[in-house]
């Protein structure tokens, strides 16, 4: 051991004196905090008699209490209205009206919210509300504080929707005529503009034309640009209220005039209102009036007025699609180029287009350019519709690439949000944006990843399915780089502090069994989920990983892998050393009961769950007791009678041996619940029909997975057998080729040396050789060469046709397939199409063997 060194610590008198001074400074700092506490006198004034009722206490606090107490009473007004509306209206509301005249900002804002809550909860009738509350709202509408005035205005606009027309006309519209005059304050005229837009939808068109439109025109001509801009934004609501004809004759000329206003905010409001009203204008108005205005806006945005760039980029998608029918090809191309220019705005210096840097960008300009590119990313799906998805790769792919690789996070975040819409629009061409999906999955910002994960299952399904429709190669090529991107995204989320993003990602990864193969999930994702359950410290993340693991296990197609995962779950979770792991095992069992059939749970997890009744930790036993009703619901009588006995035995032990009071209370409550439960039987019952039907479907799918696995093994065996047969046939052909070469040499020797042979003997030998070779290479007629392609339903017919052909044309060849094998393969439900081909191969091999035997005998005779 190393000796402990105290050389750095100084206990001299000076150092101790310094420590005392530091402590004194700390006490000096604390003194003002202690003095800020309430004195006994203040506490006495804040104390209220507990015997007072709620109404009396409210009246007392509003009359003689402090401001904070009065604010609490105003905030509690909706509760008082629900409990005793009559007394509240008679005693409390008049006090609130008196207090609001001299109240501060906090109480005013609280009162506006409380009045709106009373309206939304419908504690009183609308007639009573208008009689009691409306006058208070109108009195405080022109408060000197802008925030308070806006709060009361929002309450009034909500009230107008619920009030009857006559009340609105007499209480609101008639006083509005005087409030909108130039002699009134700016705040009063701004409030009048917003009320105009709300009232226009309340009345018929002729009333609006007679009483509202004159006020609207006067406010559009106001001397203050704030009033003109505010009224311009309300013209959309006015136009919806008066209809198409009056909009064309009254509203459109006002918008054209406001679009040429000297104030930039007024021009911007006019542009946005024009875009929002495009559906109310006919083709002539769009082509003759709206389109020239829009073109002038686009031209001025870069030259003289950059203030409208952000709004223009935000509404560009809606604008292009709204004017699509009247665009000429040249105008179509011009607006597309304008969008491309906006999409890369502010990136020219990075790309080397502005090396001189004559105009240095300020911070405000950079923020503006980022907002423009963000709006372009928002409008990207609309621009795909504008250019037609078929032209995406030619017209917009370069812009899509730039936006996905933008240096600013908000731009990439917006692209990640709209990625699903882009994928849907591209349809079968979705494979062209696969690289960008991988890029966004590997983005350095977790905000981008979180935005992309929201629709990740749908995106991956589009990537694989529609890419498959276009060609299977694209699907196969998309998998290798997609899986590393998914694993990298999960690891980055796991190492960050944003556990909600990690939880969301794990939940969405449950879609992978429908996207990639079972082996890829097993080796790349399944064990990772188990590791997260064992090592992660965040409970929602662990539960998300447990459920996703159960989904992977549900769709795993290899029994050995399933057994391995089940054994690990039981050994590392159910029998783990940490009680936290054993708790997660119970959570996993809940997911298994949800996703798997009852028989599956009873076969693998029923007894391991019951073993936790002896767990030394009380929390584990408590959680198990809460889970026991679900465990019992998985049993079927009489099949699981022995498991039911085990369950009852464990419950008896808990009742007799449990020492923890909390656990014993839960055990008793669970026993009562278990006694009331009815166990389902093997046969269907009416009360459990839907659950039994669902369980039967799960069990059928599990058996289907086992059958598919068995069929794959048989297929692999058949492929291996066919490979061996092909190797043997290749070896025989090689030997035959050697024999034919020897035969040719012997024929040449016999021709040169045999002078006694006649020409007829030579022709006979040649004809025998040709017949032997043709018989060895053409056993079957070409008519029967498609036997392997017979459908499954006609497999028996195919086999019988092969058998008849063998009997007819190859009667001398021995059959190597028995009748039992024919019957077995013909009756089989699945894989029957593969077996006839194998049987035909056996017949062909027997024919080849016979032909080869004939060749060898013929060769020996000729050589002799």
Automatic annotation (TrEMBL):
Biased composition (Basic and acidic residues): 728-738
One of the record's GO molecular function terms: protein phosphatase regulator activity
Biased segments, Polar residues type: 841-864
Biased composition (Low complexity): 830-840
Signal peptide (residue range): none
GO cellular component annotations of the record: cytosol; protein serine/threonine phosphatase complex
Ranges of the HEAT repeats in the UniProt entry: 212-249, 251-289
Swiss-Prot/TrEMBL keywords: Coiled coil, Cytoplasm, Phosphoprotein, Repeat
Entry-linked InterPro entries: ARM-like (IPR011989), ARM-type_fold (IPR016024), HEAT_type_2 (IPR021133), PPP4R4 (IPR039918)
Quaternary state and interactors: Serine/threonine-protein phosphatase 4 (PP4) occurs in different assemblies of the catalytic and one or more regulatory subunits. Component of the PP4 complex PPP4C-PPP4R4.
Listed name of the protein: Serine/threonine-protein phosphatase 4 regulatory subunit 4
């Amino acid at each position: 051991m190393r000796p402990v060194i105290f050389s750095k610590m100084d206990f001299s008198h000076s150092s101790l004196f310094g420590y005392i001074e530091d402590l004194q400074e700390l006490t000096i700092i604390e003194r003002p905090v202690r003095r800020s506490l309430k004195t006994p006198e203040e506490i006495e004034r804040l104390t209220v008699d507990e015997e007072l009722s709620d109404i009396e206490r409210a009246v007392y606090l509003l009359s003689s209490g402090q401001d904070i107490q009065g604010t609490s009473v105003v905030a509690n007004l909706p509760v008082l209205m629900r409990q005793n509306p009559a007394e509240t209206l008679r005693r409390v509301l008049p006090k609130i009206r008196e207090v609001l005249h001299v109240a501060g900002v906090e109480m005013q804002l609280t009162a506006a919210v409380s009045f709106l809550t009373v309206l939304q909860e419908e504690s009183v009738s609308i007639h009573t509300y208008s009689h009691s509350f409306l006058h208070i709202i109108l009195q405080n509408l022109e408060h000197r504080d802008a925030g308070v005035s806006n709060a009361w205005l929002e309450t009034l606009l909500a009230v107008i929707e619920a009030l009857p027309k006559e009340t609105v006309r007499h209480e609101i519209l008639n006083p509005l005529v005087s409030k909108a005059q130039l002699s009134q304050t700016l705040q009063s005229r701004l409030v009048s503009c917003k009320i105009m837009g709300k009232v226009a939808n309340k009345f018929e068109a002729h009333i609006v034309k007679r009483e509202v439109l004159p006020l609207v025109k006067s406010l559009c001509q106001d001397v203050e640009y704030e009033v003109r801009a505010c009224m311009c934004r309300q013209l959309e609501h006015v136009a919806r209220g008066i209809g198409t004809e009056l909009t064309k004759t009254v509203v459109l000329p006002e918008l054209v005039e406001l679009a040429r206003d000297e104030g930039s905010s007024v021009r911007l409001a006019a542009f946005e209102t024009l875009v929002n009203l495009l559906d109310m204008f006919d083709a002539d108005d769009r082509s003759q009036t709206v389109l020239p205005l829009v073109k002038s806006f686009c031209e001025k945005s870069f030259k003289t007025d950059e203030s409208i760039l952000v709004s223009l980029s935000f509404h560009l998608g809606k604008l292009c699609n709204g004017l699509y029918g009247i665009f000429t090809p040249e105008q179509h191309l011009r607006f597309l180029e304008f969008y491309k220019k906006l999409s890369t705005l502010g990136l020219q210096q990075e790309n080397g287009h502005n090396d001189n840097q004559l105009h240095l960008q300020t911070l405000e300009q950079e923020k503006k350019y980022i907002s423009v590119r963000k709006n372009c990313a928002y409008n990207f799906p609309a621009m795909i519709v504008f250019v037609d998805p078929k032209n995406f790769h030619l017209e917009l792919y370069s812009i899509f690439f730039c936006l996905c690789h933008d240096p600013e996070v908000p731009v990439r975040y917006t692209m990640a949000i709209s990625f699903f819409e882009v994928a849907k629009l591209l349809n079968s061409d979705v494979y062209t944006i696969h690289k960008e999906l991988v890029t966004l999955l590997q983005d350095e910002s977790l905000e981008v990843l979180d935005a992309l994960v929201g629709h990740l299952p749908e995106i991956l399904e589009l990537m694989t399915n529609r890419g498959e429709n276009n060609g299977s190669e694209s699907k196969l090529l998309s998998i290798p780089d997609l899986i590393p991107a998914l694993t990298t995204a999960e690891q980055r989320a796991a190492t960050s502090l944003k556990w909600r993003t990690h939880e969301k990602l794990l939940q969405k990864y449950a879609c992978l069994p429908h996207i990639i193969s079972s082996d890829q999930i097993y080796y790349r994702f399944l064990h990772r989920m188990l590791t997260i359950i064992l090592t992660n410290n965040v409970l929602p993340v662990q539960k998300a990983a447990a459920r996703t693991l159960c989904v992977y296990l549900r769709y795993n197609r290899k029994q050995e892998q399933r057994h391995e995962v089940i054994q690990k779950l039981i050994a590392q979770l159910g029998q783990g050393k940490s009680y936290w792991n054993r708790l997660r095992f119970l959570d996993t069992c809940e997911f298994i009961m949800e996703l798997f059939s009852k028989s599956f749970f009873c076969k693998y997890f029923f007894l391991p769950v019951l073993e936790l009744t002896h767990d030394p930790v009380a929390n584990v036993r408590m959680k198990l007791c809460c889970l026991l009703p679900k465990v019992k619901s998985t049993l079927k009588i009489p099949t699981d009678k022995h498991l039911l006995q085990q369950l009852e035995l464990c419950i008896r032990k808990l009742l007799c041996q449990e020492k923890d009071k909390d656990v014993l209370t839960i055990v008793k409550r669970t026993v009562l619940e278990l006694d009331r439960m009815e166990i389902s039987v093997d046969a269907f019952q009416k009360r459990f029909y839907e659950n039994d039907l669902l369980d039967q479907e799960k069990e059928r799918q599990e058996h289907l997975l086992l059958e598919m696995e068995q069929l794959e093994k048989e297929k692999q065996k058949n492929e291996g057998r066919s490979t061996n047969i092909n190797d043997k046939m290749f070896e025989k052909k090689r030997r035959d080729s050697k024999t034919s070469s020897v035969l040719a040499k012997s024929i040449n020797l016999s021709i040169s040396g045999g002078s006694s042979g006649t020409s007829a003997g030579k022709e006979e030998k040649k004809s025998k050789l040709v017949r032997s070779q043709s018989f060895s290479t053409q056993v079957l007629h070409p008519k029967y060469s498609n036997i392997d392609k017979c459908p499954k339903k006609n497999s028996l017919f195919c086999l019988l046709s092969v058998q008849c052909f063998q009997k007819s044309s190859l009667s001398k060849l021995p059959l190597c397939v028995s009748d039992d094998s024919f019957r077995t393969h013909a009756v089989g439900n699945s894989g029957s199409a593969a077996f006839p081909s194998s049987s035909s191969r056996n017949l062909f091999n027997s024919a080849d063997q016979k032909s080869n035997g004939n060749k060898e005998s013929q060769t020996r005779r000729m050589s002799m």
